[in-house]
Write a structure and sequence with these properties.
8 strands; alpha/beta; 436 residues; eight-stranded mixed beta sheet
């Protein structure tokens, strides 16, 4: 219940996460819900909106957003936990805490049955809230009779996230012309492009070996075994302690996405153990996406999204028109995309897994409904277009010089990222390359 109260406080208070390079243990202990890693619910932004230079007005927003809060993407954690604890129950091996944990797991599993990865009610609210703030923050743009072009991954939670976002936009401005689509035709940039050749890394295998050791140490399960079973010697023949802790951590974290259930499993972890789970998955995501020094650069598969952002922004700038462009997908795209862009929150990774969380934290990057936005501004009589970068609606920096931070000159931004794409020397596995 303590964890549930913290969750509700976090949602009700609109806690703003201030961008900073360091993530102290004290910060995580103060707001333990942040330790749920990529399960972390979307925090309200700081609310600080820097006014553009005199005479500049917003005319285009281009966006990529992760789906909102969801159920666990498959029911393997539930199956493992319920089956193992049910067997232990029949053998008389469960403690009273174990019996209660089994009861709670059965309730959670019954609710999650055949809802693998589905958007939750909270997930829908998150996207409506982001859309609402967009309208409030940029009224001179959104109140125009714009065409809103939106498309999403073909996964249900992404399509429903798009629908909720666009419904709120229409509620705020009924004159918007909203075009929504979810087609395999666009998956080459909405999801990781598996047609791209990823350069190999000799250090990759060593890093994965280190990660396995690190994860097993962070989620060792000794505490959970002692809490749940009255005979740990017999229980060890039935249950893998690491898998037990790992699956319990997943289920406990996903309860953040389902506050209406009023369920928590945080009593099965100390606060330090919850943070250890965060550290394990913080390192995992950093390595999986190739952001860790020496890792295979799997973020190459996200370059088509950058190309799409640049091409569509260039077309809008040259057209002299105004518009809103929305894309809805996954954390496996948003995280490496933020890294490619060089936003401050994403570029301080290290291969020191023990201390990685001090400089790189998933809750700053891919909470549920996390997003990147580029907001464009122009001035009548000037061809100097400015663009501002937002990470989860908070102004952020990119590695380009500017004389008007947090605004950057579009010509500098475009030149920087076009050069990045050229230098990446992207190659494809087939001639039907980027649009396959």
């Amino acid at each position: 219940m303590k964890y549930i109260r913290l969750i509700l406080f976090f949602l009700a208070s609109g806690l703003a996460i201030i961008t900073q390079a360091q993530t102290s243990r004290a910060e995580l202990l103060s707001h333990i819900e942040l330790a749920s890693s990529n399960y972390c619910n979307y925090p309200n932004p700081t609310g600080h909106i820097t006014s553009p230079p005199k005479g500049y007005e917003p005319f285009y927003i281009t966006h990529y957003g992760r789906h909102g809060a969801r159920y666990i993407t498959d029911d393997d954690p539930y199956k493992y936990l319920v089956n193992k604890l049910d067997t232990a129950h029949s053998m008389g091996l469960l403690t009273p805490i174990g019996e209660d944990a089994l009861r709670r797991l059965e309730i959670a599993y019954a609710d999650a049955y055949k809802r693998d990865g589905d958007l939750t009610t909270l997930g829908a609210r998150q996207h409506r809230a982001i859309a609402h703030r967009m309208c409030i923050n940029y009224p001179s743009l959104i109140q125009q009779p714009l065409t809103v072009k939106a498309n999403s991954s073909t996964v249900r939670r992404c399509m429903l996230s798009m629908a909720n976002f666009c419904l709120e936009l229409k509620t705020m401005n009924p004159n918007l012309n909203v075009e929504m689509n979810a087609s395999e035709h666009d998956m080459y940039y909405i999801t990781p492009n598996d047609s791209i050749e990823i350069p190999k890394s000799e250090k990759d295998g060593e890093l994965y070996d280190s990660l396995s050791i690190f994860k097993h140490r962070m989620l060792n399960g000794r505490h959970q075994m002692a809490l749940l079973f009255n005979d740990t010697v017999k229980a060890k023949k039935l249950v893998d302690a690491h898998l037990l802790a790992d699956h319990l951590w997943d289920v406990n974290s996903d309860m953040l996405c389902l506050p209406e259930l009023r369920l928590s499993f945080s009593d099965l972890f100390s606060e330090d153990e919850i943070i250890d789970g965060f550290r394990a998955y913080n390192a995992s995501w950093c390595l999986w996406e190739g952001l860790m020094p020496g890792a295979q650069p799997n973020y190459y598969a996200i370059y088509p999204l950058l190309q799409n952002f640049l091409d569509e922004a260039d077309a809008m700038v040259n057209s002299g028109k105004s518009g809103l462009r929305l894309r809805f997908g996954h954390d496996s795209v948003l995280l490496p995309f933020a890294f490619i862009l060089g936003v401050d929150e994403a570029i301080h990774a290290t291969d020191d897994m023990e201390n990685l969380h001090n400089t790189f934290a998933l809750f700053r990057l891919i909470p549920m409904a996390g997003n990147v936005q580029w907001v464009f501004f122009r001035k009548q009589g000037s061809d100097d277009v400015l663009v501002k970068f937002l990470m989860n609606e908070n102004e952020t920096s990119i590695p380009i010089s500017t004389d008007c931070y947090p605004f950057y000159h579009w010509k500098d931004v475009e030149n920087h990222y076009r050069a990045m794409l050229k230098n990446a020397n992207i190659t494809y596995k087939s001639k039907f390359n980027e649009k396959e």
